[in-house]
Design brief:
With 61 residues, this protein is α+β, with helices and mostly antiparallel strands. The chain is built from 2 helices and 2 strands, in the order αββα.
């Protein structure tokens, strides 16, 4: 598992082939959590997503 900040066009093929799942974080949708479909139920992915949602809500984008 890793973290990257990158434009969406760099992973369009993976999203289209369903290798990755995405969900927007926060009302501004400035951040997206993207992860392999096999990790949807992962406790670590869920905890990281919750943390990132909280952090992004506390910041002005």
């Amino acid at each position: 598992m890793g973290v990257a900040l990158m434009p969406g066009f760099m992973i369009e093929a993976e999203l289209a082939s369903v290798l990755l799942t995405e969900r927007p974080l926060g009302a501004g949708k400035a951040y997206w959590l993207v992860y392999p479909e096999a990790r949807v139920r992962s406790r670590l992915v869920r905890a990281f997503g919750e943390w990132l949602t909280t952090e992004s809500a506390n910041r002005r984008l």
